[in-house]
Amino acid sequence: MCAEPHQVQLGDEIHVGGRQMKITDMQDLPRGGKRLTFASGEALYVNSGTQLTVLRMPEGW
Known about the structure:
This protein has strands spanning about 1-5, 15, 20-30, 35-40, 45, 50-55. By secondary structure, the protein is an all-beta fold. The protein has a single domain (about 1-55), classed as SH3 type barrels (Roll), CATH 2.30.30. Strands 1-6-2-3-4-5 form a six-stranded antiparallel β-sheet, with no helix packed on it. The protein is globular.
């Protein structure tokens, strides 16, 4: 699914540079941006207009 930063949730996985990365922490930034932190410890700063490809598993899977 395609999503904007305000739609992502903890536990979502997004594709970054061909790698699937799990979001473990998020912080709101000015003007609708977010700082996404991944399980690897890496961080990605996105602005409000960034389109992300998100994988969200149903609960209980």
